[in-house]
Specification:
With 498 residues, this protein is of the alpha/beta class. It has a domain of 220 residues: Rossmann fold. The chain contains 23 helices and 15 strands. The strands form 4 sheets. The protein has a 6-stranded mixed beta sheet with strand order 3-4-14-9-10-13, with helices on both faces. Strands 8-5-6-7-15 form a 5-stranded parallel beta sheet, with helices on both faces. It has a two-stranded antiparallel sheet with strand order 1-2. Helix 3 crosses helix 11. Bound molecules: the ligand N[C@@H](CCOP(=O)(O)O)C(=O)O. The site of the ligand N[C@@H](CCOP(=O)(O)O)C(=O)O has 13 residues, from helix 7. This is Threonine synthase. Its cofactor is pyridoxal 5'-phosphate. Keywords: Amino-acid biosynthesis, Lyase, Pyridoxal phosphate, Threonine biosynthesis.
């Protein structure tokens, strides 16, 4: 299996090379060069498997230059040994007759990013060895809150790697920031950027594309890679949990073999929902993919009209991980939806860069609308959804998952579609303690309370334990204090890698 760049100007590479480099030299994203399919029998067989067995099966189909022993070893390290605080790794919670919540936040940092970022740090050093790499891997990450901490935790003290995480100052929740700035490890660096996530992500991509910076760090014995979902090694472990959810529905008798289900995915950088799309393409019985956005609703507009227009106001919301106007992974979807037409993708990406917008052809839009549906929730609707869901079901949603729940309700209203639906729950409610506590207890209960008091208040009010990964945050000293302007990110990287 070879991987191709969505922009068509880079040579095809092996899976190991794609994982090691993260982004293609022409600025495109790597995608599998041929279709990967599973049979109905193989999907049905998932019902009798553990999460780890499902992961080995799916990863093995994509990472063809890794042995099955290597993959099994990575899976065991990522999901075994009590790493996740749920035996099932990604448990499925039945909310009612139609809706199930796929809890993807039982890993060490309490967000769905752990599902892939416990795996990538195990794949990447092996990928480097397989490709004869003699340089240390310098991983650059742009985060709107969740990826950063998960990547730091995954890569901390991994030999042969260094990691630098950039996050937008005041653009993440207080708990998310605290998780990152207290990060321990000899190879980790965390830098706040005086800008929003889009500026942060664009800054990182500019560094990847800058020949002078690449040359300078090369002389110092480094090469760049990415732990964002632009790296194929981030996406493939995310495909697994869609199969896993379906396996659980089958084993509990909630669906018949072959019965199609919907997935609702709170969406920012489009990586999570794209993983669901690949699962569908492989043969998982999926009806619709419901893309849930917050007030930064660039994707909702795109899916409705075919016009992607980032030239609009950027809002800071209570679902900060989704405060994104340039969704990296849409590029992969466009590549697939155009029948792998790299020329068109390149033109659209150039238009996005230069004019801030592009419009896809009618036929591409029809293809997208046949699979995807989208709507968005503002902060008020998000808060109401948390409160109503808690009152009705006794189930606590974080702000991002609440966006998903709100959009699902809108979808049902609009379409009457009765397919069973799985809502991807992307983070623990404790990571967004202030908003979640305010939603269920009222604003006055949280006024003047500090972050750690709020963790306790939320735990006492709901009877839910504060997750392991957040419990000891209060005691940890702040280790990272550097803040830079977007234009200074390059210099910061060069200084860190001096
Ligand atoms: N929502 C993300 C933004 C980066 O997305 P990624 O999937 O490309 O890593 C975050 O929490 O950082």
């Amino acid at each position: 299996m070879f991987y191709r760049s969505t922009r068509g100007n880079s040579r095809p590479v092996s899976a190991a090379e794609a994982v090691k480099t993260g982004i293609a030299p022409d600025g495109g994203l790597y995608v599998p060069g041929s279709r990967v399919a599973v049979t109905a029998g193989e999907v049905a067989a998932m019902s009798g498997m553990t999460y780890g067995q499902r992961a080995v099966k799916i990863l093995g189909l994509f990472l063809t230059d890794f042995t099955m022993e290597e993959i099994a070893d990575c899976v065991d390290g990522a999901y075994g040994h009590g790493k996740f605080d749920a035996l099932e790794v990604a448990p499925l919670h039945r909310l009612d007759d139609h809706l199930y919540v796929l809890e993807l936040w039982h890993g060490p940092t309490c967000a769905f990013k752990d599902m892939a970022l416990q795996m990538l740090p195990r794949l990447l050093p092996r990928a480097a060895a397989k490709t004869g790499e003699d340089k240390e891997i310098a991983i650059l990450v742009a985060t709107s809150g969740d990826t950063g901490k998960a990547a730091l935790e995954g890569f901390k003290d991994v030999p042969g790697t260094r990691i630098i995480v950039f996050y937008p100052a005041r653009g993440v929740s207080a708990v998310q920031e605290r998780q990152m700035v207290t990060q321990e490890g000899g190879n980790v660096h965390v830098v706040a950027v005086e800008g929003n996530f889009d500026q942060t992500q664009s800054g990182v991509k500019e560094i990847f594309a800058d020949p002078a910076v690449n040359e300078a760090i090369g002389r110092r014995g480094y090469r760049f890679s990415s732990a964002n979902s632009i790296n194929w090694g981030r996406l493939v472990p995310q495909i697994v949990y869609y199969f896993s959810a379906y396996g659980d529905l089958l084993s509990r008798g909630e669906v018949e073999p072959g019965e199609r289900v919907n997935f609702v995915v709170p969406t920012g950088n489009f990586g999570n929902i794209l993983a669901a799309y690949y699962a569908r393409q492989m043969g998982l019985p999926v009806h619709r993919l419901i893309c849930a956005a917050n007030r930064n609703n660039v994707l909702t507009d795109f899916i409705r009209t075919g016009v992607y227009d980032r030239t609009r106001e950027f809002y800071r919301t209570i679902s900060p991980s989704m405060d994104i106007l340039i969704s990296s992974n849409l590029e992969r979807l466009l590549y697939e939806m155009t029948g792998r037409d790299a020329d068109r993708v390149r033109d659209w990406m150039a238009a996005l860069r230069e004019e801030g917008r592009y419009r896809v052809d009618e036929e591409v839009l029809d293809g997208i609308q046949a699979v995807f549906w989208s709507d968005y929730a503002g902060d008020r609707q998000t808060m109401e959804t948390i409160r109503d869901t808690y009152r009705r079901y006794g189930y606590l949603l974080d702000t991002h998952t609440a966006v998903g729940k709100y959009v699902y309700d809108r979808y049902r209203e609009a379409t009457g579609d009765g397919h069973k639906t799985v809502l991807a729950s992307t983070a623990s409610p404790f990571k967004f303690n202030r908003s979640v506590a305010a939603a269920i207890l009222g604003e006055q209960a949280v006024a003047g309370q500090g972050e750690f008091a709020l963790l306790r208040i939320l735990s006492e009010a709901t009877g839910l334990p504060v997750p392991r990964g957040l419990k000891d945050l209060e005691q940890k000293p702040v280790r990272h204090t550097l803040t830079v302007a977007p234009g200074e990110m390059k210099r910061a990287v060069l200084e860190i890698l001096a």
